[in-house]
Amino acid sequence: MNNKFFLCFLILLGIKLQAQNNKPEIVLIECIYTNYSDDGIALKQLISNFENQLLEEKILADSSGSSYRRIIKQMANDTFLSNHFFSNFSDEWEKVGNSFDRLNKNCRNTILKENLLPFELKVSDLITKKNIQSSSDIAQIMLQVFSDKDLELEYIKLNLFLFMATAATTNTNGSDKLLPPIYDAEKAFQIAINSDNEIFISKHLVSISQLSELLRTYVVKNTSNSTILLNYNKNTTYGDYMKLQQVILSNIEAIKHEYALETYSLNYEALSINEKDKVDTMYPLHVIAIEIK
């Protein structure tokens, strides 16, 4: 795991309460807001808009820390949101991100007395003790470190969103990206899309309907052990890549709905958080995108 990522991870992630009436996270984010030229309006809107997106897509049950913990648990089990989910978030972050990095550093130097707080020391200690292989390993550390109350703080939420966006992009050459989860390629469902945007399964050209049928058969048979490898190349158009991602997502969502009806006699959306966890564990969205050189 690249040291640069962990340095960014330690700098960006939140701050633990240190026997103070005001949590350092709250003081820090207010300092950052105040030092933006717009008093942090754009950054506040970014956090609010993405949380609303998570709520509208029913990824969050509500804005409580326990709901955010559920997302982290899913990431710890190798279930991540796809890249396209973060398109608006990424565009808006580009507008405020550079200033955030500078203001975050300046405010930390002003407010914090030590370079590493107990929270950051704990994260660093856990990282050195564990064999970090993927973003799911980082999510497991987050589960150990953050309380539900921590996950309700805006500073923590923002950096959780940034981590989620980073985790959505795997197997890149960027020095701050994470490696994909370990998987068995022979047991995975392998999809390839070529430069002509043709789709292949086991080297056989297939239609979208054929892909859906084969994919559903594989996922229903392998349940929680399902892994989908999506192979593409640099000439694959973004639009066709996203259409293929959507086909995968819609088929897995359909399987979840069917399983929910069979098991609980309820639509997936009507399930409790614990019931959704069981369905998500049964049929995780475990997709690994790999660029073929």
Automatic annotation (TrEMBL):
Assigned keywords, A-Z: Cell membrane, Membrane, Protein transport, Transmembrane, Transmembrane helix, Transport
An MF annotation (GO) of this entry: transmembrane transporter activity
InterPro entries: ExbD (IPR003400)
Gene Ontology, cellular component aspect: plasma membrane
Membrane topology annotation: Single-pass membrane protein; Single-pass type II membrane protein
Keyword Transmembrane helix appears in the UniProt entry: yes
Location (main, coarse): membrane
Compartment(s) where it occurs, according to its Swiss-Prot or TrEMBL record: Cell membrane
Presence of keyword Transport: yes
Pfam families attached to this UniProt entry: ExbD
Highest rank taxon of the organism: Bacteria
GO biological process, one term: protein transport
Similarity annotation: Belongs to the ExbD/TolR family.
Protein's name according to its UniProt entry: Biopolymer transport protein ExbD
Organism lineage: Bacteria, Pseudomonadati, Bacteroidota, Flavobacteriia, Flavobacteriales
